[in-house]
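User: quick one, sequence for these tokens?
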């Protein structure tokens, strides 16, 4: 088995056709053995002589793999080895749906499934597909049945130009699906990354990226993939030539300002940051400025207002379209009905083909797609800034391993004794990054993102099922901003943070965020993020002898909620906050009762130094 790659922020599993259905299947008590029936039937149909039957089978598997209880049965029946060859099927439609099924499998299956896909040699047909499709995308060899065979549609129903457009769209859709499979697998398997390096996949995906002006969706998928494979991959960095860097630069500096392009430029900025070690020192400042300029522009946009405006635009567009359709029906009358009857079969077949591309939102959801692109860009921008600020701190897994070991108590005690409550080593920033962060007002913009999501935007999303998932995205942005805030408070001088008064205002802001939610302990992600920010703030305030703005009672309320949390990050933050609070209170008069309360919070995992008492 390969080793999964550790990241500061792990991408949540993405289900292309909606939320992963594992939870629903588990709630219904679905037995994995029950899924062997449809799985066996669908897998058998993959070998059917009819391209349309193979296409239907791939589409069925694309839906089935989203049900986690079905995965063991599919693994037993070697689904990957049966789907893999279909990436090179004579039919474009089969290639596309097979790639979609593998994409869903890699997105919903997790690390073990992705690594097993590498073991089952999915990379061989995948790389071959990417190379073959590239020749068609670049040189427009859209020969349909001559090169690839039937597209799965009745060619007699389309004119030559329509057939050409259909084939071109299918080929680019296949490329998009294949790049997403590659991205998912490389994110979960270091062996896949090694194959990516050895097979020259970098050159392939960069050529796809170079077409960003004509296919931004494909370019975004490539940018996601590149951001993943360039992280901690010195072998790949050696392969980047000047022309390759120029492709990235062209995409990052594109003048187009649509929300999809904003996401593309943000992802490419993250990739270029990963390449900083190969950028000449004389160009470092210029590149860092360009990266942070883009991130600053992304964070400057008001996500809540954008959600409200885009939803209004969608509502108006749908209303106008309905009125236009009614008008046409009234004008054309029976002729329109007759045309519908004549086109009934091809229309249905086209709609069915779109549902087979299970990972794409319907084209009519363009406002939703654009809004998601902006929210994703803002989340990505915040994650890039955190990674810019990160030192080699222990990962959550390392904290968990440490907290369960015999040495954990001694480690906690020594850390608190030596650092006055600061568990992690101080961070450091290069002069170029430090200057760019302050010049582009990044701290101020991050502070603004720590607020709760716009209540009107939340209400708008909650009343529409397709927009409801955006509420979680907006909350995730808030949590990422709080983690960013933690890094910046730890890194920047007090003066660059606005001085002591600004830190006191920040403390009041964080306490208001925390205690405005009576059930804050139930929101684990939020609790971890805000406790991280508070830990950094309290440490900075204590080290500069600035009066604490949060009362001991407030801090103890937070610690009571966090000390027994199942989240290791929350517990780590609470330990540090207790240490900082104790060291500050020990220097003041009349704090004995509060110090005794601190002692009561100590659990067997959190032994504090006797100096707290």
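Assistant:
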């Amino acid at each position: 088995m390969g080793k999964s790659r550790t990241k500061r922020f792990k991408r949540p599993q993405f289900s292309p056709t909606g939320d992963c259905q594992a939870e629903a299947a588990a709630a219904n008590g679905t037995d994995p053995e029950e899924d062997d029936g449809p799985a066996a039937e669908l897998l058998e149909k993959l070998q059917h002589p009819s391209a349309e039957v193979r296409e239907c089978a791939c589409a069925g598997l694309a839906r089935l793999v989203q049900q986690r209880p079905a995965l063991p049965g599919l693994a037993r029946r070697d689904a990957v080895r049966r789907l893999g060859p279909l990436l090179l099927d004579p039919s474009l439609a089969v290639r596309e749906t097979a790639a979609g099924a593998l994409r869903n499998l890699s997105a919903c299956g997790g690390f073990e499934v992705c690594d097993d896909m590498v073991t089952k040699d999915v990379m061989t047909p995948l790389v071959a597909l990417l190379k073959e499709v590239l020749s068609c995308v670049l040189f427009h060899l859209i020969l349909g049945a001559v090169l690839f065979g039937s597209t799965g549609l009745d060619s007699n129903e389309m004119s030559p130009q329509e057939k050409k457009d259909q084939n071109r769209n299918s080929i680019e859709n296949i490329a998009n699906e294949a790049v997403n499979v590659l991205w998912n697998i490389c994110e979960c398997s270091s062996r896949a990354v090694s194959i990516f390096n050895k097979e020259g996949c970098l050159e392939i995906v960069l050529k796809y990226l170079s077409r960003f002006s004509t296919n931004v969706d494909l370019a975004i998928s490539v940018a996601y993939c590149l951001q993943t494979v360039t992280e901690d991959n010195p072998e790949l960095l050696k392969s980047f030539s000047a022309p390759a860097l120029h492709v990235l630069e062209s995409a990052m500096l594109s003048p187009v300002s649509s929300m999809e392009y904003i996401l593309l430029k943000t992802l490419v900025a993250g990739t270029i940051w990963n390449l900083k070690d190969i950028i000449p020192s004389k160009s470092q400042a210029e590149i860092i400025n360009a990266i942070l300029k883009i991130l600053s522009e992304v964070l400057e946009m008001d996500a809540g207002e954008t959600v409200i405006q885009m939803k209004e635009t969608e509502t108006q567009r749908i209303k106008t379209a309905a009125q236009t359709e009614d008008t046409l029906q009234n004008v054309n009358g029976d002729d329109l009905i007759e045309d519908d009857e004549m086109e009934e079969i091809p229309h249905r077949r086209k709609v069915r083909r779109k549902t087979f591309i299970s990972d794409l939102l319907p084209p009519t959801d363009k406002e939703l797609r654009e809004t998601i692109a902006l929210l994703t860009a803002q989340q990505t921008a915040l994650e890039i800034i955190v990674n810019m600020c990160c030192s080699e701190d222990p990962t959550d897994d390392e904290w968990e391993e440490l907290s369960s070991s015999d040495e954990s108590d001694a480690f906690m005690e020594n850390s608190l004794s030596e650092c006055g409550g600061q568990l992690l080593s101080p961070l450091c920033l290069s002069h170029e990054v430090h200057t760019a962060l302050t010049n582009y007002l990044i701290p101020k913009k991050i502070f603004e993102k720590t607020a709760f999501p716009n209540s009107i935007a939340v209400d708008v999303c909650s009343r529409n099922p397709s927009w409801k998932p955006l509420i979680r995205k907006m909350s995730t942005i808030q949590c990422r901003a709080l983690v960013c805030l933690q890094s910046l408070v730890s890194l920047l001088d007090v003066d660059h943070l606005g001085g002591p008064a600004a830190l006191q205002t920040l403390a009041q802001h964080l306490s208001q965020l925390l205690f405005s939610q009576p059930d804050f302990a139930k929101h684990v992600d939020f609790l971890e993020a805000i406790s991280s920010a508070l830990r950094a703030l309290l440490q900075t305030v204590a080290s500069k002898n600035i009066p604490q703005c949060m009362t001991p009672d407030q801090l103890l309320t937070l610690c009571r909620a966090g000390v027994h949390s199942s989240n290791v990050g929350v517990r780590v933050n609470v330990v540090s906050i207790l240490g900082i609070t104790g060291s500050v209170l020990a220097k003041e008069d009349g704090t004995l009762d509060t110090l005794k309360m601190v002692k009561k919070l100590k659990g067997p995992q959190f032994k504090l130094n006797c100096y707290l008492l």
